[in-house]
Amino acid sequence: MPKNKKLEDSDSDSGPEDRNPPAKKSKSGNDVKGGNDSKGGSDSTKTDDQGNSYWELDRNRRVSLSSFKGKQYLNIREYYMDKGTGQYRPGKSGITLTKKEWQQLLDLVPEIKFEN
Fold first, then answer.
1. Which of 25, 64, 101, 102 has the fewest CB atoms within 10 Å, i.e. the most exposed one?
2. Per-residue pLDDT tens digits for 44-78
3. CATH value at residue 105
4. What is the pTM of this model?
5. How many CB atoms lie within 10 A of CB 32?
6. Residue 101 forms part of a structural domain
7. Is 70 exceeded by the pLDDT of residue 91?
8. Is residue 32 part of a domain?
9. Domain encompassing residue 33
10. Inter-residue long-range contacts of 85-91, CB under 8 Å, 24+ positions, other chains counted
11. Which helix (H) or strand (E) segment is 100 a member of?
């Protein structure tokens, strides 16, 4: 008798959220609700439920500012939709930059060119 195959209820266009397992509950509480607009700033600036500003690069990638132990950080991270809560949660893929590292990257931008 053959083994039962698991049925998946997702289509092939579902993207990275299917590849990222649900994140463990983080101590910093980076849970993010989708679509919360900030009351000030530019139209593209949004605010998560901890009050951190973020900007969407595309559907599953965000740039955000956060503080930890009194220092500010810039995060570039992939997010996935938690099917249980309906909230966007941070995935494993991403990078965190200090203010100094962010400034160094900005200084390098004029020198970086895509070949094509």
1. 25
2. 888 887 888 899 998 889 999 988 899 999 999 99
3. 2.30.31.10
4. 0.55
5. 23
6. yes
7. yes
8. yes
9. 25-111
10. 87/31, 87/32, 87/33, 87/34, 88/32, 88/33, 88/34, 89/22, 89/23, 89/30, 89/31, 89/32, 90/23, 90/26, 90/30, 90/32, 91/16, 91/20, 91/23, 91/60
11. helix 99-108
**Rounded average pLDDT over 1-6:** 55
Residue 31 domain-assigned (yes or no): yes
CA dist., res. 109 & res. 33, Å (int): 31
φ, ψ (nearest 5 deg) of residue 39: -85, -15
What is the amino acid identity at position 28? S
- Is residue 93 domain-resident? yes
Q: What is the mean pLDDT of residues 88-102?
A: 91
Strands 53-58 and 46-47: antiparallel
The tokens for 40 are 């000030």
Residue 9 above 90 pLDDT?
no
Report the domain count for the chain: 1
